[in-house]
Amino acid sequence: MGYPARIAQCKKRSDVLDRLDESLIGLHGLRVLCAGRFPQKSGDWDRMKLGETLFRPKSASAKWWREYLALARTSHDPLVMLARVSLAPFTWSEGDTMLNLLGADRRVLELCLAHGMRDGFTCPIGARWMVSFWSSEPLKNVLSNATRAALYMAASAAAVQLERLLVPRPGNMAEQPYLTPRELAVLRWASLGHKIPHTARALGLGAETVRTHMKKAHEKLGTRTAAHAVAEAMRWRLFP
C-alpha cells in the first residue's frame, strides 16, 4: 500500500487517516472508519471526542458517527472492549463469534449494518490505540494473512503519527487516583475472593487495619463495595 513510508509527511491529524483511506482503494472494498485513543480509564467514553481522541477520515459517514456516539453514551461497544485487551487484529464477524454477542450487545453491529457496513477489521495497537476499517462485504474468508499484516502495519503507522501530533488537553485526561501499596494489596486479595480475616492473615495485618485500607480505597475510587472497588481499580489499570 505504500502508506507507512508516506505517513511521516503528514503534518495535520486530519491528513493521517485520509491518506490511509486513499491507499486502500481497490482492496476488498475496505475503507477507514476511525482511529481511537483509548481513555486512561477503561469505559470512560464521555472523554472520547471526535477530533481530540477519536479521528475519522473525510469519507466516513458523519451520520453514522452521530448515531454511534449517541449510542455509546448509553451502552457500550463489545468490539472496542475486545480491541483494548486483544493482541491481534480481527474482523468484526470474528469478534462477534468470539464474544457470542446477544441482545443489546449487538446494537453497534446492527447500526453498522443499517449503514451498509457488513463487516470490518479492527487493529488494536499497544493497548492504547485502535484503528478500524469497514467493508460492504464479509471479510472473514477474504483477508489473507499477508493482507492482514499489511493493514496492521499501516494502522500502527497511523496510530504512531497521530500520537505524535496529538496535543494533550488537561480537561480530556482523567486524574488517576493514587492508592498506597497496602491499599492495592488489600484490593488484590479481595479480587481473589478472600474475606477480610483471610486477607489480614495473608498480609500479616490486623483485620481492622485491612478494613481501614479498604475504606480509604473506597474514598479514593468513589466505590461502596469490595467488588466495585476491585472493578474500578482494574478500569484504572492499577493492577492486572
Helix and strand arrangement:
Blueprint: H1 3-6, H2 13-23, E1 31-37, E2 54-55, H3 62-74, H4 78-85, E3 90-91, H5 92-99, H6 107-114, E4 119-125, E5 129-135, H7 145-165, H8 181-191, H9 196-203, H10 207-221, H11 226-235
Antiparallel strand pairs: 1-2, 1-5, 3-4, 4-5
Keywords:
single chain; 240 residues; alpha+beta; Beta-Lactamase; Arc Repressor Mutant, subunit A; 2 domains; five-stranded antiparallel β-sheet; 11 helices; 49% helix
Explain what the structure shows.
The chain has 240 residues and is α+β, with helices and mostly antiparallel strands. It has two domains: 170 residues, Transcription factor LuxR-like, autoinducer-binding domain (Beta-Lactamase), CATH 3.30.450; 55 residues, Winged helix-like DNA-binding domain superfamily/Winged helix DNA-binding domain (Arc Repressor Mutant, subunit A). Helix content is 49%, strand content 10%. A five-stranded antiparallel β-sheet has the order 2-1-5-4-3, with helices on both faces. Helix 2 runs antiparallel to helix 7. The longest helix is centred in the middle third of the chain and has 21 residues. The two termini are 37 Å apart.
